[in-house]
Amino acid sequence: MRGADGRVAAIVEHKDATPEQRAIREINTGIMAAPTAAFARWLPRIGNRNAGGEYYLTDVIALAVADGIPVETTHPASADETLGINSKRDLAQLERIYQRAQADALLDAGVTLADPARIDVRGTLACGRDVTIDIGCIFEGDVVLGDAVSIGAYGILRDAKIGAATAIAPYSHIDGADVGARCRIGPYARIRPGTDLADEVHIGNFVEVKASAVGERSKANHLAYVGDTTVGRDVNIGAGTITCNYDGANKHRTVIEDDVHIGSDTQLVAPVTIGRGATIGAGTTVWRDVEAGVLALNQKTQTARAGYQRPRKKPKD
Description:
2 domains, 12% helix, UDP N-Acetylglucosamine Acyltransferase, domain 1, single chain, 14-stranded parallel β-sheet
């Protein structure tokens, strides 16, 4: 209720209001601020002579006016700001409202969202021009996406920086890492904290990289683990390669210099250095440093047995 001068005079509960008072379109949202000493004076003076026999905190407004204390009001930009939370349902509803506001801000900034209802920004997300984000993506902490970055469906990025024109394929997780420009990541790739990928790096499906630096144009396209490793430029890491960096007590570092080719199913037992231009044969276990330009492999033989009978399943009764 306001007086003839337009200033607040009192707050009246709905059940106690007259028909004329119920026609007032301005309501109290329940948010109130006043000096503690003033509240201490007013609270003992609140009565319960009303339709509900209740003690209304809002009665302090009329008491403040009677004491000559000015009452000021403020209006939220959206009614959503005043919604309360009394249940998990309310909490989920407000989260969706907040996330839709985040999505709308991204759309207004020129970001392409496959579905604005299916994105979660749980920190800050800064996007360059022509960024595309597919459904189900989650962004946590501080994430920066450069120009023309595309994020595939159900990607999770946390405290990550992604360079221009990099494509993140679906179901990839990037956490605490810097990714250069024009890289290809995933699908199903996991980039862990402390990783720095240079430009045009390829990290493929089911590849995990942790606390490693990977040089320009290097590739690990399939089923590999690269941990605590420094990888040079133009390196190819074959499928099934593992850097064995943990001895049960300490982590050790692997160094792979420029232009190295590592065959599939290779184990690099750290600490170890693979020299520039070296080739590691498929299935090799490397536990000593490899010189530059050489072929390293474990000698092995292959035999063939004539007349071999493959085991067969017994017929069921």
